[in-house]
Amino acid sequence: MTTMAMASSSSLRSATVPFLLLQLLFAAATAPAEATGGILLPSCKTVGGGSTYFDVQFCLDALGSVGAGADARSYQDLAAVAVGLLAANATSTSARIDGLLRGGVGIRKVDAATARCLRSCRALYAGVARRQPACAAAVRGRRFGEARSSLEESAAAARGCEDGFRRGNATSPVTAENDDAFKLAKLGVALLAFA
Ligand SMILES: *[C@@H]1O[C@H](CO)[C@@H](O)[C@H](O)[C@H]1NC(C)=O
Ligand SMILES: *[C@@H]1O[C@H](CO)[C@@H](O)[C@H](O)[C@H]1NC(C)=O
Hints:
Blueprint: H1 2-30, H2 32-37, H3 40-49, H4 56-64, H5 67-70, H6 75-102, H7 112-140, H8 144-167, H9 175-192
Helix pairs in contact: 3-4, 6-7, 6-9, 7-8, 8-9
The structure holds 2-acetamido-2-deoxy-beta-D-glucopyranose (2 copies).
One 2-acetamido-2-deoxy-beta-D-glucopyranose is lined by residues 62, 85, 88-89, 92, 180, 184.
């Protein structure tokens, strides 16, 4: 009985070992990016592949643009990076809106209809910027539901800014900024679903 069990387990082992070796060789040959890129690529494939708001490339470009993204070890880490990028975006977009409203060196002052829309965008982005410290704390504290609703509010703010121009028959000078902020917020939401 014991001999039979040993024999069958050793024949199992002799069949399994070369198979595992082959798998290891195959993995090493086909997945150098995953091996050196940490969790960034597989995570972006997961959230970007399943999203209608942003694609894998946006996720890789955004999170890969900072060291913390490349070094992340969890979806929670990656979500924290997205929140940080959103905060930086909101700050720079607010500054750009101020510049557009003020006019100045190299910046033409906008017309009245555009200015009206920009003023409401300024309030929306002030809200986005104001929310990010608490949102980052919620991610750190694993209060993911709170973080997600904060990010959804920020996504809605970015969309609301862009919609304001459409309703006001004005051309948005901050379409790219709204698009980035909206996608970053949705990226954060998607990452937190896996955290
Ligand atoms: C805003 O986010 C976009 C998309 O991640 C990024 O390309 C851009 O550099 C960010 N801007 C700032 C000022 O952080
Ligand atoms: C925008 O244009 C439409 C059609 O031209 C008009 O009905 C509407 O009142 C305009 N809205 C504003 C805010 O000017």
